[in-house]
Structure formats: C-alpha cells, structure tokens
Write a structure and sequence with these properties.
The protein is mainly α and 463 residues long. Helices cover 70% and strands 1% of the residues. It has a domain of 300 residues. The relative contact order is 0.14.
Length: 463
C-alpha cells in the first residue's frame, strides 16, 4: 500500500468506533467515503506497479475464493437488485404470499421485480460492505511493517475506549457520558452496546499481544546477557503486561458474557502462542507470571461478586431461551426463503412475518449472525462463508505444518497466526451477538481476516 492508502486505512480505523461503533447513518456514510478513497488509491497503485508486485504463487481456487470475498458487494448487487420477471419472482420460495397481499392492498406488482424483498435495504447493506472490503484489503495487501502500524492504531483506539469506559463508570449510572439508560452502569465507551464494546477490545487485545511479542523478541535478539540488560528487559515486560491488563479489565468491566467466553479465551491463546514462541524461556516464564497476576488483578478491580452475578445460571437460561427462540424462528424463515434468501440487509422488516408473540417489539437483528446470514443470503451466504472457510483451512494447515517442521514460525506467519486468533474470538462471539452488523467491529474483523490470509512473502520472514 502507498502512503495515501495507508493514511485512508488509518483514518478508517480511527473513525469507525467514534459514533456508536459506526452504526449510524451519518457515521456510515463517512466510513464509506473513506473506504472509497482507500480502494481507489489501492487500485491506482496496483495498476501502476503491477509488473513489479510480487507474492508467493496462489492456486486458481484460492484466487477465486479471494475474488468472491472482495467482489461480494458487486456480485450480490447483481443477484438481488437486477429486476426479474414477475412470474419468476412470485414462483421463488417464500415470495408467493406477497402477491395476493399486494393485490388486496391495490398495489400493482409490475412486470419485473428484484429478488430482494426490500431493495432499498439491500442497497444500503451492500454499500455498508465497502468499508469491510477496504478493511480486508488493508490487512491483505499490507507489508508486515504496515500491518504493525494498523494494529497499533487499533490498540490505541482500544485504550481510548477503555479510558472512556472508566470515565463512564466513575460518573455512576446517572453519568451523562452514557448517552442512554439501557446499559447505565456498564461501560461501553463510544459504542451503543456493552457487547460490541467488549468484542472490539478483545480483538484489539489479540493484536496488542502480537505487538508485544514483536517488541520483546526483537529486543531480546539485540540484547546481550548482563544484569542491566535483564533489568531493562523485565521493565519492558512489565510495561507491556500493564497495557494488557488495562485491555483485559476493559473487557471484564463491560460484564459481557459473550466477550468473556469468546474474546478472552482467544486472547489467552494468543498469549500462549507468544509464550511458546518466546526467545528466552526464563524471561517468558516471568512474563507468564505477570500475565496471570494481571488477570487476577483485573478481576479484583472489577469485582468478583459482580462478575459472578453475570453468570447466574437462571439469568443465563432466560437469555439463552430468548436468543434460542429468535435463532430458531430465524432459521425457519431461512428455510422458507431457501435457496435465494430474502435479500441482503432485509432481516428487520421481513422477519416480522415469522416473529412469535414471545419476541416482543421489533427485532432488527437475529442476535445470531450466521442464522441471519442464511435468512438474508441463502445459498449466496453459504458461498461467501465457504470461500472464507476454504482459505482459512488452507492457512491453518500451512501454519501447523510450518510449526511442526520448523519449530518456530517466521515473523510473517506469526502475524498471520495472531490475526487469526483475534478473528476467532469475533467469530465465536457472533454465535450469540450481531457484531458483524456493527461497522467498527466488522471493519476490525475484516482487517484481521486480511492479515490472517495475506500472501506470505519470504522476504518478510526476517523482519
């Protein structure tokens, strides 16, 4: 990436969490504009330097899978927004019921209709995918040094979120910094939901652990043995550990069960990978003790009793029952519309047809991203997910084989592994939440996905 693309990527990552995690129309329009600048800049640079751009060869199948992901807003627009004959539309699964309703209301159907049941919602949804593609390509096309910069920006934004959350908590449940009363008393930074706040910080924590590993291993390679050197090394470990403690405390003080059960374990796996790949076993053992002490300190600061109250089995059963009912009826709707789906971005208005009485109010999201993807995208959602899973499985196999064969992953493969662990927490949390529909979280996850799947350049292995 050139300087313009890097600046646009940094601006995208900085701006995305600032207004309710980007989940507001004005904020989203701004993010889409920044993403377009990034994409145009990257396209110009790629076209200009195409002859000299080098990467490890990829199979045609892998290139096709990447193209399916990167071009998804364009080809999904063709699928769902190009008008089709009315006869085909009414004969498509799940749509026959709407014809008589329109006729009864005196609304003519027209000679042709797009496959999407709510075309305007699909247009908005696919436009919202532009920043996600920009985030993915920012990770995928970056040099290792550029990826460090972008992950560092994310870590910095996560620290700001934790600081703002502490200000909210310090002001009490009546603090004007909450902007809403729904989650008063549970910090959520500039997001609209404590779960999205915690999920963002959990992904950033995995990236932060990678930056810590890079810094400490690079420093260890330069240092020689000596009392003063060991003292400086221990100080660096303590500083990095304190930063990790702050981010872990941010996750815990949100009282988000989903983030605690998905994001924190993923971050702990990242910490375990860093410890296993450490250069000096003695110093890394000390760091392990510091991490354990830091986690205990974070729990103590937040309050053991308060944390345990969030995991009360009766409360969890009630929440699970509601989310289970929502997911069950969403999957029933997905079956009704299979294989075409209702149209990307149409869940809110279309789900009303399947909403049971027990689900009170307007359900804008399914609180289960994968069920909602099937509802809206049908077989096309399976195609997108399948393309990603193919690439992810190939990368995991490559990393495992490299670790078994070499014992220590090169720097670029370590970056891929840490990004994959950060992404894992996001994917697990999406089983019970709608983080994929929050721009800041989705953009960060896309960045990690790009970093996880980026072409491995052998020249970066020593950096």
């Amino acid at each position: 990436m050139g300087p313009v693309a890097i600046c646009a990527a940094v601006l995208l990552l900085v701006a995305s969490p600032l207004m309710r995690g980007g989940n507001r129309q004005i904020a989203l329009i701004g993010l889409e504009a920044i993403a377009l600048v990034f994409l145009v800049s990257l396209w110009i640079r790629t076209a200009w330097t195409w002859g000299s751009w080098r990467s490890t060869p990829q199979s045609l199948l892998n290139k096709t899978a990447v193209a399916i992901l990167v071009l998804s807003p364009a080809w999904l627009a063709l699928v769902y927004l190009v008008p089709l004959p009315a006869g085909f539309w009414t004969g498509s699964p799940g749509r026959g019921v709407y014809g008589p309703l329109l006729a009864g209301a005196g609304i003519p159907m027209g000679a042709s209709l797009p496959l999407s049941l709510v075309p305007d919602a699909t247009k908005a949804s696919l436009l919202a995918g532009i920043p996600l593609i920009a985030g993915f390509l920012a990770g995928y096309a970056s040099r290792l040094s550029q990826l460090k910069l972008l992950v560092g920006v994310v870590a910095g934004m996560a620290f700001l979120q934790v600081f703002f959350g502490l200000l909210q908590a310090a002001g009490g449940s009546q603090s004007t910094l909450y902007f809403t009363t729904e989650f008063a008393g549970r910090p959520f930074g500039t997001f609209a939901n404590t779960n999205h706040f915690a999920n963002y910080i959990a992904m950033a924590l995995a990236g932060y652990i990678w930056l810590a590993w890079c810094s400490l291993t690079e420093s260890s390679a330069r240092w020689t043995d000596g009392v003063g050197v060991r003292f400086a090394e221990r100080h660096a470990q303590i500083i990095w550990s304190v930063g990790g403690l702050a981010l872990a405390m941010g996750i815990l003080m949100s009282f988000s069960r989903g983030a605690a059960l998905s994001g924190l374990p993923a971050a702990l796996l990242a910490a375990g990978l860093a410890l296993l790949a450490g250069s000096y076993s003695r110093s890394w053992r000390m760091l392990l003790l510091l991490l354990a002490a830091g986690l205990l300190a974070a729990v103590a600061l937040v309050g053991v009793g308060t944390l345990l109250s969030r995991f009360d089995l009766s409360k969890m059963a009630i929440d699970a029952s509601f989310r289970g009912l929502l997911a069950k009826t969403t999957l029933a709707g997905a079956g009704e519309f299979w294989p075409w789906g209702s149209g990307w971005g149409t869940y809110g208005p279309v789900y009303l047809r399947f909403r049971p009485v027990a689900v009170d109010g307007y359900a804008e999201y399914a609180h289960e991203d994968y069920a909602q993807m099937l509802f809206e995208g049908g077989i096309f959602a399976v195609l997108v997910a399948g393309a990603f899973l193919w690439l992810a499985a190939g990368r995991v196999l490559l990393l495992v084989r490299s670790a078994i064969g070499k014992g220590l992953l090169p720097a670029d493969q370590m970056a891929s592994a840490f990004c994959g662990l950060g992404l894992l927490g996001f994917l697990l949390h999406s089983l019970v939440e709608f983080n994929m529909h929050i721009p800041a979280n989705a953009i960060l996850a896309a960045l990690l996905a790009g970093g996880f799947l980026r072409p491995l350049r052998q020249s970066e292995a020593a950096r």
